[in-house]
Every structure is written in C-alpha cells, then in structure tokens.
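User: Predict the structure for this protein chain, please.
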Amino acid sequence: MFATWNVKVVSTIQIIIIIIFALIFFILSPKALKSLESLLNIWEDELKDKSISEIVIGSVGLILGFLIAFLVSQPLFIIPGAYVGSALSVILYGMLGYLGVKIALKNKDEIILKNKRDPGIK
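Assistant: Here is the predicted structure, written as structure tokens:
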C-alpha cells in the first residue's frame, strides 16, 4: 500500500512543480525575449561600426583563443569534485576567447599591413 502511495505522491509533486515552473517561464519569457532582442540590437549596432577586416580578424582571434582554451582545459576535467573541472573550463574558455579577440584586434594593423606586403604564394 505504501509503495503505490509513494509513487502517487511523488508523481503529484512532480506535476505540481512542472506546472509552477511552466507558469514562471510563461510570465518571464516576454521580458527575457525583449532583453535578448535589445542586447542583439546593441551588438548589431556595434558591428555596423566595424569593418569586415576587423570582424574577420576578431573571429580568427576568438577561434585561436578557443583552441588554446580547449588544449589547456583538457587536464582540468581530471580534477575531482562535482563540476569543478567544468566550471574552470567555462571560465578558461571565456577568458582566453576574450583575450584572443583583444590581442587580434590590437594587432590588426600589423596583420593587415603584413598581408598587403606579402600576398602569399600563388
């Protein structure tokens, strides 16, 4: 009797929790979408001011930063503890991705001038 009663109680509690969270997200989703839309508009306005070469160089810097973060973060997953390695990996990806973009954009003039002088091998 108690086994079936426990299953019914647990199922009822789960359904109540699902309904509560569904209502919370139903109420908050329009505000979240408006915030996301305004953030994307800000990013779009900032990208409009950049040249194509700056966007490409920044993207390459981001990819190189992520590549370095991938190589460095592999040993972090060995760290014992719940989600410690994953949390450190996410932080590392953010830091090195940002650093890659900043370094690439800081040296963009040197990269562009070097490519103009030496167009490469045909």
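The mean pLDDT is 87.
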